[in-house]
Amino acid sequence: MQEHEKMKEKVKQQFAKNAQKYVASESHSQGNDLSLLIDWLRPTSDSVVLDIATGGGHVAKTLASHVSHVFATDLTEQMLENTARHLKQHGKNIWYVIADAESLPFLPNTFDIVTCRIAPHHFPNPDRFIEEVQRVLQPHGKFLLIDNVVPDDKRFADFMNTFEKLRDKSHVRCLSMREWQGLFAAKGLVEIRSLKRKKTYDYPTWVERTTANQEQIQRVSQYILSAGEDLRRYYSVIAENNQIQSLEVDEWMVLCEKR
């Protein structure tokens, strides 16, 4: 099995095991970005939407009452089944499709809107993901990406990707804004609006969500606490009595149009 396929299997295992946690997660279900979706996307009653790697279905739920149809896709069948049960009362126009973000089972020029939120750091081939987004979008269709991003500085980027990987085996890599912009430009997706903000994690809840045991939690915590002061300051690591209480990461929300 190729390395990328192995990584996708890890993603399936991780999200199947923690499906309900992602439905309930405050950082996923109550993020400030959700309240901006309608204003940014300006959907109409006949819009057809694709939500890639829907996870707990929070974007699909937010958009469903404003559009004609939402196709909520995910690589993990158990995650999708759990989300479908959760959203049963929230939208009769949400359709659930098992799909790989890097190989979407849809025809070209199908969707008015494509969204993907807090998921691309799990994708082994972000270039293929963007290629697929561009392919399935209608001309002048809108693409909204929301994900954690790293600074351009390699040391700071490596630090974040390392503690994320220690915490979650299915984590591949958070990209920088500049890297994403390069991928957009290569595929004719024009950036029209963006917002970068700090996102605070309640550390005990965040680290427990994807770790298997106390030993793994300890490895994550020790790695963060042993980092240089500049790294801990950038990620706003708050600790009391050697116990991490919270930290912050950068999250980027960007809207593009297919030209």
UniProtKB/TrEMBL annotation:
InterPro entries: Diverse_substrate_MTase (IPR051052), Methyltransf_11 (IPR013216), SAM-dependent_MTases_sf (IPR029063). GO terms for molecular function: methyltransferase activity. GO terms for biological process: methylation. Gene3D superfamilies: Vaccinia Virus protein VP39 (3.40.50.150). Keywords: Methyltransferase, Transferase. The keyword Metal-binding does not apply. Residues 50-144 form the Methyltransferase type domain. The keyword Methyltransferase applies. Belongs to the methyltransferase superfamily. This is Methyltransferase domain-containing protein. It comes from Fodinisporobacter ferrooxydans. The lineage of its organism: Bacteria, Bacillati, Bacillota, Bacilli, Bacillales.
